């Protein structure tokens, strides 16, 4: 009996602060209409495991802007093209920032990231460098031989795996290829070369960083729990991202030393050279990019370019296998 009462008492102690928090953070009067939701969890069940369909159903009942609550977090779903245009074209600056996950705050990643940094000088510089230097047609055309070599290498990997008469995990090979291609474009390094210990270690660490950042986190739903890091996601992210930053910093320092000594190489100018050579006016934009910003930006390119490419390729192949007539020329 005593143990039962102790359990009940501890439940009351744990949930009482959460209930107080919810009572103090009720929906404001001007919050968009939406389903009422459940205590503590909010509208998680209303979204379910088919959010695109469930949100479309909510639009029929509540309109093109639906107010939702996930745990202690209030948010809105924009469910029409007209309203989305109004938000992101006519009021884009007001909605330029995004929610920062707890795991993405370690090592100030969010403050130096092109996808997470607040709208300001740092974000504008990084965006301009990507648009003008990395994604311009001339730069893409110059990288054609590198891309061809990386794709040929991927085909060799797939052929070798297929000879083992077992299923081929294509997404894994496209992920490896994307990672290696970005290493060549960013750092002029073949990171998956067996002789590159740092490259192989960086690959494993970035896979861990992707896992921790994409894992559902109670701290994002209930901010009161952030200090406890119950799932140890922030701790794991801090470890893996810290080690990845150490490796990236080593690459940057090596390049800086080469430039200081005036070492002549026959390699083409890569994106690390662009980052190191950047000079702003110091007024409307940064005067120079800090080493920490460069390190984080390099890692972010790996995060953004590797997983999305492999996921898209896997999705396309799945659709083709399910609809074989699409492959008929």
UniProtKB/TrEMBL annotation:
- For whether the record's keyword set contains Cell inner membrane, the answer is no
Q: Under what name is this protein listed?
A: Cytochrome P450
| GO MF annotation list | heme binding; iron ion binding; monooxygenase activity; oxidoreductase activity, acting on paired donors, with incorporation or reduction of molecular oxygen
Q: Which organism is it from?
A: Dillenia turbinata
UniProt-listed InterPro entries: Cyt_P450, Cyt_P450_E_grp-I, Cyt_P450_sf
Family label: Belongs to the cytochrome P450 family.
Q: What is the lineage of its organism?
A: Eukaryota, Viridiplantae, Streptophyta, Embryophyta, Tracheophyta
Q: Keywords in UniProt for this one?
A: Membrane, Transmembrane, Transmembrane helix
State the Pfam families in the record. p450
Q: Where are the transmembrane segments?
A: 6-24
């Amino acid at each position: 009996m005593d143990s039962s009462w102790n359990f009940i008492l501890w439940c009351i102690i744990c949930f009482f602060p959460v209930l107080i928090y919810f009572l103090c953070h009720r929906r404001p009067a001007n919050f968009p209409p939406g389903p009422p939701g459940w205590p503590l969890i909010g509208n998680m069940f209303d979204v379910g495991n088919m959010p695109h369909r469930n949100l479309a159903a909510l639009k029929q009942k509540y309109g093109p802007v639906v107010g939702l609550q996930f745990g202690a977090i209030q948010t809105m779903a924009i469910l029409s093209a007209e309203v989305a245009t109004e938000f992101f074209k006519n009021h884009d600056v007001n909605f330029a920032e995004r929610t920062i996950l707890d795991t993405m705050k370690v090592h100030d990643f969010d403050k130096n990231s092109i996808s997470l940094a607040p709208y300001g000088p740092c974000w504008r510089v990084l965006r301009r460098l990507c648009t003008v230097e990395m994604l311009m047609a001339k730069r893409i055309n110059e990288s054609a031989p590198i891309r061809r070599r990386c794709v040929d290498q991927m085909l060799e990997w797939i052929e070798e795996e297929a000879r083992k008469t077992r299923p081929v995990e294509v997404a894994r090979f496209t992920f490896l290829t994307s990672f290696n291609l970005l290493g060549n474009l960013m750092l002029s390094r073949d990171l998956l070369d067996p002789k590159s210990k740092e490259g192989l270690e960086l690959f494993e660490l970035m896979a861990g960083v992707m896992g921790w950042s994409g894992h559902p986190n109670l701290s994002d739903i209930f901010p009161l729990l952030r200090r406890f890091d119950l799932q140890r996601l922030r701790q794991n992210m801090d470890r893996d991202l810290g080690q990845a930053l150490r490796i990236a910093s080593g690459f940057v320092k090596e390049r800086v030393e080469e430039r200081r000594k005036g070492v002549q190489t026959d390699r083409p100018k890569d994106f690390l050279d662009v980052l190191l050579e950047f000079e702003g006016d110091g007024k409307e934009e940064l005067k120079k990019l800090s080493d920490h910003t460069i390190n984080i930006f390099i890692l972010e390119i790996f995060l953004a370019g590797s997983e999305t490419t492999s996921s898209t390729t896997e999705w396309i192949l799945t659709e083709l296998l399910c609809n074989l007539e699409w492959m008929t020329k």
